[in-house]
Amino acid sequence: MDEKNTDLSFIDKIVELSAVPAVVMELMTLLTDPSDKNKETLIVKKIKRDPAMATFIYKLCGSPLIGIREQVATVEHALDIIGFPRYKSMLMAYFLRDLYGKSGKKYIGGYLWEHSLYVAFICRELALHLEYVPERVEEAYIAGLLHDIGKLVLFFHDAKTYEPLMFEADRERKEFRSLEENQYGFSHVEAGYYLAEKWGLADLFKDSIRYHHCPGEYRGEEEIVRLVAFGNITSYYAIVKQVELPGEFLEYYNLSEEKYENIIDKIFGVLVDARLLQIN
Description:
By secondary structure, the chain is mainly α. The protein contains 15 helices and no strands.
């Protein structure tokens, strides 16, 4: 996975990260299988067997995040309106929100989740602007949700040390990966990539994790990898105010500064109104 000889086997022992729940994996497999003519019926049955998941989907459909103007009364109705691609991203959001909530620290879990959520919506809006097909828009969204999962790995592994490390990076505006590497010999990038491999995620998600800080090193052809890096730096430009306008990305995507700021304003408008996905 990396040129470094890094022992990340400790991740295998973190119970909370051991696997994506079977029901989530089954549903996501069904959603991406074009050959299964009965998949809609199977998806609805599986969701109905998980009341928490069904409730999450009902509430999400009624939130500004989805933008449905009519009331959704059943799982079947939601699936009919939203379509398979967005359902897939909703399932991943359901799983990851729960995972971040298991961190045991509301502030840390919420902080990490909020950043991932912001990057996910930035990636979705950028993908829409670039006229990606619906399935690719949702893949960009999922990649954004997953890009920093390595930070949660390290927090689960060593909360006592990792929490003050995060505060130090924020307080003193230090480069976080350097602090991680000094402490552990690797960063959240390597940890996240290892976990993605353990979960059996597709290459586009693994590479989005691996290269979200260094897209120039990516030698593949998956455009979403670069898009996630753009989404990540946009979050630091627009929300944290830690970086300058990412002119190199604007030039690459032929985005004017005005259009870019309009995209950011749209994202803010939705997220300010939407509290559903926050960790309670």
